[in-house]
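Hi support team,

I'm opening this ticket because the web form for multi-chain structure prediction keeps timing out on my end. I have pasted the exact lines I submitted so you can reproduce it. The total is 642 residues across two entries, so I didn't expect it to be a heavy job. Is there a limit I'm missing, or should I split the entries? Thanks in advance, R.K.
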Amino acid sequence: MPALAFDHPVLLLALPFALLPLVVSVLRRSPHPNIAAAVPDRPSRLLSIALPILGLLALACLILALAGLHRTDQVVFREGRGAHLMILIDRSSSMESTFANRRPDGAEESKANAARRLLTDFIERRAHDRVGVAMFSTAPLQAVPLTDRHEIVKSAIATMDFPGLAQTNVGRGLALAAGAFGSETAAASRAILLVSDGAGVISREVQAQLRDTIGRRPVNLYWLFLRTDGAKGIFDVPASGEHDTPQTRPERHLHLFLQTLGVPYRAFEADSPDAVREAIAEIDRLEARPLAYEEEVPRLDLERYAYLGAAIALALLVLAKSFETPFVERARTLPPLRRSGA
Amino acid sequence: MTYAARPAIPTELDLEAFSHLVYAMRHRVSSPRPGNHASRSPGPFGRFQGLSLLAGDNDARRIDLKASITDPFEEIRIRRFAQPSNGTVWILVDLSGSMGFEGTVSRHAVAVALAAGLAEAVRRAGDKVGIVAACGDAAPVFELQPTRRASAPLEVATSLAAVQPSGAGLEGLAKCAASLPASPSLVFVVSDFAAPLGEIGTLLDALALHDVRPLVVADPDAEMPNRRFGLVHLDDLEGAGRGLIFLRPLLLATWRRERTARRQALFRLFVQTGCQPLQVTGQIDLRSLSEDLLSGTVAA
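Hello R.K., no limit was hit. The queue was backed up. Here is the completed structure from your submission:
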């Protein structure tokens, strides 16, 4: 329900003047001896209704415009199908290399580039999602809070092209992403999509913080692991005798840690752009639940429309006025008596 | 709605132009005073009405010698005549709102000139003229009892020119018509006859006793606008309403047809009630008015 308001409501007192055109004609009145003989036809009748209404519209629009008609800013509840999705992107420098761990050349694109392209497609498909973007390398950075304005989300994802920093501080990143969901997201599905090509050690404090945040606001966790050729997978159980510590196998231990959080969690290991696409399609399928969200609509000035309406009505009235003609057009009235020879 | 300034009062010269209008009365007048109209009144000259005995009539000046000599009873016969007498002419002037219309001419001015001019013509013919003017359904605004006063025409002109045409219909005039003297006389009705035919019929019924000559003051050039295209806001002079008209040749053609139909209906009504209508179109053309008065017919 649009809430209309006025900047200068006192001017609305002039609104009854808008009724004047119903009483007073815009055209000059021509006296006629016997109007019963001047039967109007259909166009005349239509115009005789239309012109006063145009006058009324013109005056009413002008008064409304002068009074500063606008729609107030407001919160609109909307419902869509999708999820509240936080995309958490790894900006470590290793994302710059290809899946084959080489510098990207013309034939092969970098992991960042592939992820950017596929994530952009993903966002475009999911029109009703509210998406936020957070990034992390050494420190986490919230790029875009949860929003349904996808242009800005796509812009944030596009920055993946720029070179990243050294480290992979995934714990702080996760904490930031998990904390980005506000109370308004309670009704709908919440998800964090972690896109990274590696992991780091999560300190005990950060682990406790993560458990706390996610325990309070459960989220669905998806980890899209962009595995580089030759790197150890997250599902690989180390061979006997191999060290199995977070320091040596940070990916596997992050995976184990995330499993212990007690929320739905899936990890996708992708070692090529195609595998990334499949993983994203799977997430797309999973995260489609009814979603109610509220949107802030800014104040909308309706003055210009009122002025436009008045201008159109006035232009039509001027057009009608330009066709105005007196019924009898005589320069001079003749004397009553005709004088032959005079 | 009111319209137009007061019309100029016709000058004596204007009135003089009317003095040669000739009219005839359909019925025999009855008056001892010699005049121009066929009458039943006996007199020393005029229409021969037969012979009578000198003993009875006692007017030795009109002895018919031949009839007296050849009379087998040797009676002295005298001639009898019905002498032309003068009558009374009434002029009823409609000054309802529509008479305030100004087209090629001011209808009010035409009505004033006609009333005063006819009064002058009647005075010159030696008849008495009585005038009644009424605005719409109101009481008469001007009444002049039958008179031969020389100043009467100018009085009429001055008084009628001062009246602002107003009101609607012919009801006031019909009431005046009903109160005219019961002896048949010639009645000119000056009006544009824009009222509904029913009201005109009522007026003519009230005048059934008299010899009625409706003077239809028309202004066809003005009633059909000379502009062929445009928007015009019409306001009825008799307060019958207003309306916006989108003038187009097609609409004007429709109006013209309706106008012709109404005119024919009006003239049919005149014929049915035994009136001889006269038409004044635009300016008063005395020559054609004279001809119409003499011939007693106007083509509808």
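A quick check on our side: The first helix of chain A runs from residue 20 to 23. Let us know if the file doesn't open in your viewer.
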